[in-house]
User: Fold these one by one.
Assistant:
Number 1:
Amino acid sequence: MSWGAHSIFTAATMHAVDWAAASPLAHLAHVVRQVPDDAWYRREWMHDAGPDGLLVLRRVGHPGGYGMKGGLSWNELIPEQAAALDLDVSAGLLAYLAERGMEDQCPPDGFRRWLQSVAAQLGQAVMFYSCSMWAGEIEHEYVLVYGEGEQLHTTDEDAAANGIGDDALIKGLAEVSVNLPTRYFALHASGFDWAPHALLKR
């Protein structure tokens, strides 16, 4: 079974929601103020969506990524002003993906600068999450966080399988004020209904 997620997360402040509504990404935007009560299969998995809720821009990333149907290619998001990127992040992300034979999944510099510019415009942390799984195994999972500089978090799938080591999603969501007690994230469950949370109602 294949699964993929490529999304941008930030706190759903009034400023952020107004920005999303006026942006070319409005059709991909969702606002989750609280996680529905029926999202929990186990009590120990329970978590919230942060004090402001979450603004999620779904299906933004590599145009050929799994789960990107109907999404927006990261090649289309270019910042108005160039900003310096963290060279350690660049090297670390390339090495992480190259080790998995997935160098082509490395986000372009323009997209990273765009994320940086959005964080500066909103005055709050912005997180990009990318994950690909095949037959239940993680192919790649990384997070880029923008706010005070640029941060990279990656998941070591062998360590994660044993419940130890780094976990990109847990660390990344903590930067946007969502604290996961386990690796379970309700918004990534197959049964999560996104329609009621769409910013643009159909």
Note: The chain has one domain: 2-197.
Number 2:
Amino acid sequence: MVVSNSDIIIDKCLRLKNQGVVAGKRYWHDLVAYNYRMTNLCAAIGVAQLERVDKIIKRKRDIAEIYRSELAGLPMQVHKESNGTFHSYWLTSIILDQEFEVHRDGLMTFLENNDIESRPFFYPAHTLPMYEHLAEKTAFPLSNSYSHRGINLPSWPGLCDDQVKEICNCIKNYFNCI
């Protein structure tokens, strides 16, 4: 689902969902595109979520702030908002300090053993098979480093503050044990 107030973006999206067909010229495709269509059910869910988007984003921002506050002082960076931006916190992320990189998987296992789901960062695009021919695996050292040190923490808007603090306490316990 795309929401925009830009006619240019909407027109481009319509063309992309319509296999790149040029309006007014039947079966003429001037860009690579696919037959992307959203079902009515998916559209209805999207519209319903848009009606709640402000509430969802506020809660996700509140959760991120709890993580930032509770995890302060640990050997990590908590995903933060840059000046002049407004972060929706689709994911709340931590990046372990470099000297603790070897502990990422251990921390994730520790969380899992305490019934807390976490996810590693995505692999850098340039390391994926379909793109690896475009760049050396070492061409982007920051993205490589972040992908090895990053963890996405639970941030579902339905988490209560106490649950987020419990996750933080579990992370603190891990660092107290290593």
Note: DSSP finds five helices and four strands in the chain.
Number 3:
Amino acid sequence: MAGGLFAADREYFFHLGGYDSGMEIWGGENLELSFRTWMCGGSLEFVPCSHVGHIFRAGHPYNMTTKDVHGYNSARLAEVWLDDYKRLYYHFRGDWK
């Protein structure tokens, strides 16, 4: 599920807890929501005939730091959801040990 290209029932989205407040700016929220939906008994549906768009802003409404926010967020995903399998994340993403 692409983070910028998904639709969800608002009530269900907030029932799941909305976005993880421990994540920063962007990156990884799509995987985190996918794991949470699946682990909490929900399902994802891919609709091949659907059409979506993504409108990029001229600038960012947040400060783009030099920090690897995607790396930070994916490490958080591993710590929260992957349990025994997080070792595989750290094996393949060696810079986040």
Note: The chain has a mean pLDDT of 85.
Number 4:
Amino acid sequence: MYGSFPSGFYYDLTAVRESGDFGRDTIAAWGGHVKSGWKFAELPGKPELSFEYSYASGDGDPEDGRRKTFSGVFGSRDKMYGRINLFDWRNLKNSQFNLEISPLPKLSLLAEFHDFKLAEKRDGWSLNPSLYRDPSGAAGDEVGRELDLIATWETSITGKAFAGRLTVQLGACRFWAGNFAQKVAADKNANWFFCQLQYRIDIQP
């Protein structure tokens, strides 16, 4: 569900319910995502502030005959779970804050901050749920926090043979390990940098 208003406020809601059978277990899982924000189109740089929250149920008792761990339905979407791809839409609570600004007509700058927690602390971390798991729940649910900084530049290419649009994207990301990650996985933080080039060709009839 999506909606927007003349004031610049907008919202985007997604809810998914999973049911059926998995071996001898009955599937009873769900996931949700909500995003809301404001676009200030009249201000210099057209800044946009937004908040997102992603939830995916977990399973605290794998022996009770009910499979409650949600399995993501949209594949890998790093915009919802962090650019380093340490998470999936599974046993997750992610609070996300975004700020985007366009200082130049073809340039946009984006900052994303994520606070990652487990929905069920006795279930596993989606990075490797069978290995990174504490059945007792003593490790807690604080997996970590992540800051992503992305710059995107777009320009049009004209010409008879290869007219199209070129997009260049640069990113710098850092993940700070929380208590759960330190106790169950590793007590090290992570850095990730990337450069992405995309060229879309306009095919003329």
Note: The chain has one domain: 2-148.
